[in-house]
Design brief:
The structure holds 2 protein chains of 2 kinds. Helix content of chain A is 57%, strand content 11%. By secondary structure, chain A is an alpha/beta fold. Chain B has a domain of 187 residues. In chain B, α1 runs antiparallel to α9, α3 crosses α9 and α6 packs antiparallel against α9. Classes of the chains: A alpha/beta, B mainly alpha.
Chain lengths: 592, 297
């Protein structure tokens, strides 16, 4: 399913088609040299889009994708190589392979399947690593695959040239492949998986808290991107006819990455812009490198002009526009911003399950510091419970344990009898516990609507996600901002988006960590009314952390007081106000 | 048994060089989140200074000093020119910037010095070997181990007892808070680069003294290995970088020595496979960085 508006998708696909066809026709007019350049360009663009599917959406830069190009190239070439050539150049091939002789398309299909399988295995391992560690691990993948290709002489001819591959890749085949890659990459970006993955890129912890299984989405995009790389590899192999492992190593990796990053990693628009920019400059400099005649003068030959040129473009692009030339939006999103009316209406259903959250003897130690000590509590749908205490008393740590973000040192918590210790955050969110964060954690470069939609799509099986998202936006009164990027909103509105996002998960219990911080009196009052309505009309149980005691006293049925990690009081607001231990914790002991 | 001891010495020498390089990468990474691809070119610069000083007939001790000084200055210059404009950008932006710097330097070396490998004149002493308790060790290997130990001790002292070092550790844990405490971002980052340049310089001397030649791409492979070592140890963790460097050195040397001949072709993939295996068991590396634990939610 695609989450973007159909208008955007249709526009982008038509533009991709027009771009590919016009470029190909143009190159045919220029002649064979133009056709060669454009064919290579198309094949490179497939690879750039392939890397973009993973790196752009996940935010993890990959150096390893060239290894998938290599696998695609070798596998497809082994299948299309004429049997006679195989007998001469690769005498030690297994018999079934030596006798095989496929056409280009079936060979590509097999190459894609094999590469996807390899990517699946690698991806399962890679999923355990994060951020920069994952990036360097992909560098390791590149070296490993390169090493295997060189070592596996019987099949790959080692570091020597693999030749005799039929030159079946015509300009139009490359163009068709490129069009497919453009469409796949564009659709993936706005597919459910793509939207979830982009949410993890923006804020991994928040994505988990709204039900996104980060590893699964990363794996999906990793395998999909590997498949695109395999197409690129098969096409380049059948374009060149002869290649060696060097073709699939650092030089080409960096060229592709330069294209992707100069253009803008997060969009297909960026991939195209970057590929065009680098190709144009490279072609120009390549001619300059060997010395060209300008008005009768021949420029001197300079070694490495192309590299210097690419490097200079990268530096200029990074210094001027760190997000790439195309920025963070697709061209059609920029030209035709989503309309507010695109958000339909819907409603949130009343909480039917009266299952309570029970926490027993929760304890959290950070090294020698006990942040939370032996705290037990119960939260039932429909009630509003306040959690107060001085700064550093362990309120946020308690919320973090109860939402699965950190594992408690001791203690057990359960929802409706199901023990939640050790459950990942995304599953806890799916079971009906949603939360907001003390330091706002939105997905800043996604729109408000997408912020909320991704939560709705990732919980409750994604049923009626659009309706739930719309209702959540309506409930918090931020529907008018739905088309804006979340990061551009005012502080108070960002808080409201965060609550709406939690609400879209259709929770039975909602943890709010200082929702009124930074809001003025009117805004706080409005928020209070909203929360009261959520509890009354939808039956949601709310655990509210705030320093605004006025808000807490008026809103809560029950108040828990923490001090230095210990639960020092629990009861109705009136009782808490009179409790000597609470007064002491807040005001200090009287000295008489 | 003798071979084992011999190879262990080799492993310490190679691992030490990796450790110094990985440390240089880790210091910069821990503070500003930059994976510096141009670190290898710092090494190459050190190598060329050794070469030119050797040709000029300077005494070796002075040559070494100049080489290390040049890499230190080059690292600070690199930060000032190339990395300051992208300091607050994403990790990918910084990484690709460093890659561009590396590419430009390589082309400059190729055009202004030579595309080919150049010999470096070294004192005879370095190619001698000594007999220690029945087996023979190259002087260069012993010096490499000694230099590594000296550098590690120096670094430990620097990080624990020097104001700049302590500021760096603070900045590595939480840069924003460190700045609020009055630590100047510019001086901490410049210091981190100076230190990484210093380590690259020492590594260059050790590397060249084993090979007696320098070429425009000299730094590429060892720094690639150092990246792997830094990850193996735990990215951003200094102790981890050292541990990772030595671990990788041992893996490589032992595989080269003890892997059956038929498998030697797959030495690099197998070595990296072992590293990946370790990472699967310990995703944050052998000795994870402290900042990972301190992450605020």
């Amino acid at each position: 399913m695609i989450t973007a508006s159909p208008r955007h998708i249709v526009l982008s696909i038509l533009a991709a088609l027009a771009f590919v066809v016009i470029a190909a026709v143009g190159a045919t007019i220029v002649g064979p040299a133009g056709e060669r350049v454009l064919t290579v360009f198309f094949i490179s663009l497939i690879a750039v889009l392939g890397i973009g599917v993973y790196s752009g959406n996940s935010g993890i830069l990959s150096f390893g994708h060239m290894s998938f190009v290599a696998i695609g190239a070798y596998v497809s070439s082994l299948l299309t190589l004429p049997a006679a050539v195989k007998a001469a150049t690769l005498p030690k091939l297994p018999e079934w392979l030596a006798a095989t002789e496929l056409g280009l398309l079936p060979a590509i299909a097999v190459a894609v399947a094999v590469t996807a399988l390899v990517a699946l295995v690698v991806g399962l391992a890679l999923g355990r690593l994060d951020g920069s560690a994952a990036t360097i691990a992909t560098l390791g993948l590149l070296i490993i695959v390169h090493g295997i290709i060189i070592g596996w002489r019987d099949v790959t001819r080692g570091s020597g040239t693999f030749f005799g591959v039929p030159r079946d890749t015509s300009l139009w085949i490359a163009a068709a492949g490129c069009l497919v890659a453009l469409i796949v990459a564009r659709l993936y970006r706005d597919s459910i998986s793509g939207l979830r993955l982009r949410a993890t890129r923006e804020n991994a912890i928040a994505a988990g808290a709204v039900g996104v299984n980060l590893r699964r989405e990363r794996l999906i995009s990793w395998v999909l991107s590997a498949a695109l790389m395999a197409v690129s590899g098969a096409l380049i192999a059948h374009f060149l006819g002869a290649f060696s492992p060097k073709k699939f190593y650092f030089v080409d990796t960096f060229q592709l990455l330069a294209m992707l990053i100069v253009g803008g990693m997060t969009t297909t628009t960026g991939a195209v812009v970057g590929a065009v920019a680098i190709t144009v400059v490279t072609e120009f400099l390549r001619r300059l490198e060997s010395g060209i005649d300008i008005a009768g003068f021949t420029t001197p030959q300079v070694f490495g002009t192309t590299q210097i040129g690419i490097a200079a473009i990268i530096l200029i692009a990074m210094f001027r526009k760190a997000d790439g030339i195309a920025g963070l939006k697709e061209w059609e999103e920029r030209l035709f911003p989503p309309r507010t009316a695109d958000v339909g209406d819907g409603r949130l259903t009343k909480v039917s399950d009266r299952a309570a959250l029970t926490a027993k003897a929760m304890t959290m130690r950070f090294g020698g510091l006990t942040a939370v000590n032996d705290v037990s509590l119960k939260l039932t749908p429909g009630e509003i419970v306040g959690l107060i205490g001085p700064n550093g008393s362990g309120k946020t740590t308690l919320l973090n344990m109860l939402s699965g973000i950190i594992a408690p040192s001791e203690g057990e918590f359960s929802l409706a009898g199901k023990v939640l210790n050790g459950e990942p955050t995304y599953r806890i969110a799916d079971l009906g516990i949603a939360r907001t964060f003390q330091n706002i954690r939105l997905f800043p470069s996604l729109t408000v609507h997408q912020n909320v939609l991704v939560a709705a799509l990732s919980t409750g099986g994604g049923r009626d996600a659009e309706g739930r998202a719309a209702a959540a936006l309506e409930n918090l009164g931020i529907a008018e901002h739905s088309g804006s990027d979340a990061g551009t909103l005012s502080y108070g509105d960002q808080r409201r988006v965060e609550i709406a996002r939690a609400l879209a998960c259709q929770p039975s219990l909602l943890f709010l960590d200082e929702p009124a911080a930074g809001m003025n009196r009117e805004e706080t009052d409005a928020l209070m009314e909203t929360l009261r309505a959520l509890s009354r009309d939808l039956g949601i149980g709310i655990l509210l952390v705030d320093h605004d005691l006025g808000l807490i006293n008026r809103l809560c049925d029950r108040i828990l007081v923490l001090n230095e990690g210990n639960l020092i009081a629990e009861g109705a607001p009136d009782m808490i106000r009179e409790d000597p231990a609470v007064i002491e914790a807040y005001l200090g002991r009287r000295n008489d | 048994m003798e071979i084992l001891l011999q190879q262990t010495v080799n492993a310490f020498a190679l691992g030490g060089t990796y450790a110094l390089l990985a440390l240089g990468l880790a210091i910069v990474f821990s503070i500003m989140g930059l994976i510096n691809f141009a670190h290898g070119e710092l090494m190459t610069i050190g190598g060329y200074v050794l070469m030119y000083c050797g040709l000029a007939g300077l005494p070796f001790a002075l040559t070494v000093g100049l080489a290390i000084l040049s890499t230190t200055l080059a690292a600070m210059l690199m930060e000032r020119i190339a990395f300051r404009p992208v300091r607050n950008a994403s990790g990918a932006t910084m990484l690709i910037t460093s890659f561009a710097v590396s590419m430009i330097l390589q082309v400059l070396f190729q055009n202004f010095i030579s595309v080919r490998s150049q010999p470096v004149l070294l004192p005879q002493l370095l190619s001698d070997s000594v007999r220690v308790g029945g087996f023979i060790i190259g002087v260069n290997k012993l010096l490499a181990i000694a230099a590594t130990v000296v550098m590690l001790v120096f670094l430990d002292w620097f990080m624990k007892h020097q104001k700049t070092g302590i500021a760096m550790r603070a900045a590595a844990e939480d840069f924003a808070v460190a700045r609020l405490m009055g630590i100047r971002a510019n001086s901490v980052i410049a210091g981190a680069f100076a230190l990484s340049g210093l380590l690259a310089g020492v590594a260059a001397v050790l590397w060249v003294s084993q090979r007696a030649s320098v070429d425009p791409l000299m730094g590429f492979t060892p720094v690639l290995k150092a990246f792997i070592a830094a990850i193996l140890g735990g990215l951003g963790s200094l102790r981890g970088a050292v541990a990772g460097g030595f671990a990788l050195g041992f893996i490589e040397i032992y595989l080269a020595a003890f892997l059956p001949a038929a498998w030697q072709e797959f030495r690099d993939p197998i070595g990296l496979g072992i590293v990946v295996g370790v990472l699967l068991l310990r995703p944050n590396g052998l000795i994870p960085a402290a900042s990972l634990k301190a992450q605020k939610v």
